[in-house]
Write a structure and sequence with these properties.
The complex is a heterodimer of chains A (143) and B (332). Chain A is mainly alpha-helical and 143 residues long. Chain A has 5 helices and no strands. The longest helix of chain A has 68 residues, at 75-142. The two termini of chain A are 22 Å apart. Chain B is mainly α and 332 residues long. Helices cover 72% and strands 4% of the residues of chain B. The chains are: A mainly alpha (143), B mainly alpha (332). Chain A binds chain B through residues 2, 6-7, 10-11, 13-15, 18, 46-47, 49-50, 53-54, 56-57, 60-61, 63-64, 97, 100, and chain B through 94, 97-98, 100-102, 105-106, 140, 173, 176-177, 180, 273, 275-277, 279, 282, 284, 286, 288.
């Protein structure tokens, strides 16, 4: 027989799994530190790649000047500046992404906790159904 | 107030009834407007400036997620520029990659903001975007909005300065220097990024306050910040000729955002959801219909001494009863 309470609960679970749950459930396979570290690593790679692109564009933009003054340039100072700017950008991005992803992880866990509560309720309904079924079979045996 | 609530209830009822058609239709209209705008402003490749192509692309976007629209819009723009100069495409792609690495990868959900800003700029309604994002999202949306502003100015520079004014488009370095020069020295672009960011933050802070009419007040304050910011900025940049358009555009944008906000609040959580799942005994195909809170009054006209209209009235009554019965069934 159809159990309305169960259908309502399962609908809510299915709806969550279809929408936000996809990302949340995937995220639940990580520990918080692992998740934040992984995303910081991705950010470092992206920022490094982006910074290299910017450097390439600046080099091309200043190519005439660079070629004309190739001998007189203070390469040590240029290198230090490039590295310094890179480190500053990198630190800013690492701090921001660590805060952002940790916050995102926590909010996702809260939603997931609600999902697990619903799952527990569903399990209870199943147990109730099993109990009723067993009682019915015992009753029919006694008859 | 009751009238508004009744109107909202009617709106919800119609939305639920025609949701399957309305959702893709709205997406189709938006996509068509986007592709038409791109073809109108960047229409260098005449093979692409055709209504059937716009319709086909819009149809594809109507049934796919919004990120597909962003992708198609980018590809279409690049194809137009490619037909004029392949070097310009390389410059655009390089700038896109930088924007992606530094900004856009953190907010892929708000890709539509990147498209909305360049599309609404020519209509003088770009002020809508920060207002709407402040109301509906969070301050992280400053990143895609900034990307949108940069992309608009990039294409604007390519359109007005690079393609029309550089005589030899094969001279890579000259073209590159010109585009980059114009982009870096574009103070208007930086002003727009700053003001839009301020608007998003102001709207977000005010609408998060626990006060009455927080949304409406936040939109009004956002419009005021936008007007003041651009007026002060235009005084600094000596572009005073735009005063009227700034005020008019901001006010009109605020009005549009108010209307969108009304519809959003009216239609949020009213969408019919179809979910499928199974247990040991059954497969379930559930159609979840949200309840409608306010009863919509039915207008009844009573005709006296007219047999035919009396019959008509009776049949209308029957229809109303049927509909109420149907609503009850849905709720249960």
């Amino acid at each position: 027989m159809l159990n309305n309470r169960k259908i309502r609960l399962m609908s809510r679970l299915a709806w969550y799994e279809k929408k936000e749950g996809k990302g949340d459930i995937k995220l639940s396979t990580y520990y918080k530190t692992d998740y934040v570290r992984l995303n910081i690593l991705k950010t470092v790679i992206a920022v490094t790649f982006g910074y290299l692109m910017i450097l390439a564009m600046i080099t091309l933009y200043q190519s005439e000047y660079l070629i004309a003054n190739a001998v007189n340039l203070n390469y040590k100072q240029i290198g230090m500046t490039i590295l310094g700017v890179y480190l500053v950008i990198l630190i800013v991005y690492i701090v921001c992404s660590a805060i952002g992803y940790a916050f995102y992880y926590d909010s996702s866990r809260k939603k997931l906790a609600k999902y697990f509560r619903m799952l527990r309720r569903l399990r209870m309904i199943y147990r109730e159904e099993d109990g009723e079924a067993e009682a019915d079979t015992e009753g029919s045996r006694e008859d | 107030m009751t009238k508004i609530l009744e109107f909202r209830a009617i709106l919800r009822a119609y939305y639920q009834k025609f949701q399957a058609v309305l959702d893709p239709l709205m997406k189709f209209i938006v996509a068509f407007a986007v592709f038409h705008m791109i073809n109108k402003t960047l229409g260098y490749d005449t093979r692409l400036v055709k209504v059937p192509i716009e319709i086909v692309l819009s149809l594809l976007c109507a049934f796919t997620p919004s990120s597909v629209l962003v992708l198609f819009a980018m590809i279409l723009s690049l194809l137009h520029v490619y037909s004029v100069s392949s070097i310009l495409v390389l410059i655009i792609v390089a700038i896109f990659i930088i924007l992606y690495c530094f900004f856009f990868r953190f907010t892929p959900k708000y890709g539509y903001a990147v498209v909305a800003v360049p599309i609404l700029f020519p209509l003088n309604l770009s002020y809508c975007v920060p207002l709407l994002l402040g109301v509906t999202a969070n301050p992280v949306t400053i990143l895609p909005t900034a990307c949108g502003v940069i992309i608009y100015h990039l294409f604007h520079i390519i359109n007005t300065e690079a393609i029309s004014e550089v005589s030899n488009l094969d001279d890579t370095l000259e073209l590159y220097m010109r585009v980059l020069d114009a982009l870096i020295k574009n103070r208007q672009m930086f002003l727009e990024i700053i003001v839009f960011s301020l608007v998003i933050i102001a709207v977000y802070i005010i609408r998060s306050l626990k006060i009455e009419y927080a949304f409406e007040i936040s939109i009004a304050v956002g419009a005021a910040v936008s007007i003041l910011g651009f007026l002060i900025g235009s005084l600094k940049l000596d572009t005073s000729g735009k005063t009227g358009s700034i005020i008019l555009g901001s006010l009109l944008s605020a009005l549009i955002v108010l209307i969108i906000q009304f519809f959003k609040r009216a239609l949020d959580y009213t969408a019919i959801e179809n979910v499928q799942f199974e247990d040991d005994d059954y497969y379930y195909y559930v159609k979840a219909v949200p309840k409608i809170d306010i009863a919509v009054p039915h207008m009844r006209v009573k005709h006296i001494n007219n047999r035919q209209s009396q019959e008509k009235e009776l049949s209308e009554d029957q229809e109303i009863q049927d509909q109420e019965q149907e609503n009850d069934d849905n709720e249960t």
